[in-house]
Structure formats: C-alpha cells, structure tokens
Here is the input.
Amino acid sequence: MNYLIFPKPQNKNPDNTYGVTDISKENDGKVWIATYAALFNYDGKKVTIFDNEKLNLKDNELLHIRSVLADSKGRIWIGNNGIGVLLMEGNSIINFSEKNNLIHPTSTRRGDKSKPGTLEHVFAIEEDSEGNIWFGDRDTGAWKYDGKTLTNYLISDKLSKPMIWTIYKDNKNNLLFGMADGNIFKFNGKAFEKQF
Here is the structure.
C-alpha cells in the first residue's frame, strides 16, 4: 500500500470536509475520489481538484458530494446531497438533475427533504450490465437512466426509511440496493425483491 498525500485546497466552508465518500476508477486507470467538499482525480502522477468553481456551481449551491461513477462511456457522474447529479462529459459539466427538471422550484439546494419526483440527494450511483445508469436518492427511491428516459422506482412501500445508501453490481450483474434501515433489495428487471 502507498500513502498518497493529495493537495487539499483551503476549506472555505467549515460545514464541509474532505472526508472520502466514494471512489470510482475509469477504464484507463484514472481514479476519482469523492469527498464532501471536492472531487479529486488522480491519474497516477498528478491530482486535479474539482471544487465549486471548477464544477460551475451557482452561488446558492453547496457542494456536498456523496457518490461518483466513471461509466463505461467515459462520463463522470457526481451524486450530490442537495443539488442532485452533476455530469461531466469531456470538458462539459452540467447539472443533470436540473436539466431534467428534477430539482423542485422551492428547493433550497441545501439538503432539506426532497419532494416526490425529484432527484436532489443522490447517495449512490451504479451502471448496470446494459449501460443504464442507476441513482439512489435519499428521499425518492431508485432512478434508472437508459440514455433517453429517467424512470423512478419505489423500492418498497414497507420501508421505514426509503434512503438508498449504496448500489452494488455483483459478479452475476445483479443490482443490489443497500438501504439505510439495513435491508438489501435486488432488482429483478421489473421490481425489487428483498434479499435480507
């Protein structure tokens, strides 16, 4: 194991830290490291930092990254607690949630409870074997993006907390959804089956 010292910028927001929340690796070996206050890219030699400014955030938006995914098409998906999903494609960075009208007009973009039908608090992102991108939202369940359409799924109406903490693709290409209350669900192609 090697200990890597990343050059962390001065933390301008004492409410956010550089605690690591997720890691994803691109096909070419570059590593993306998500922290609450910034996204770090390590290519084996140098570190590039993506903060509020580099991610084109608005003045009222708080960066609070919870997840990152480098997908099979070379896109970088960034799940944020408050402003939804940011998408990096080449040199372009957009707010994917905002572009798809999935941030409520009255949202403070600061982490308050999401209204149904929004994608504002993304704690988990995964790509399935067919290239669909899945998002796990803290308040509104699972979302699947097939490249054109976003579909929202309720995991179960029997859950005390709908919060999705993690999405994992196993070696049989099943998607497993880890919930805040400790339950694990598997998506069977149509619905979610409780595993334990």
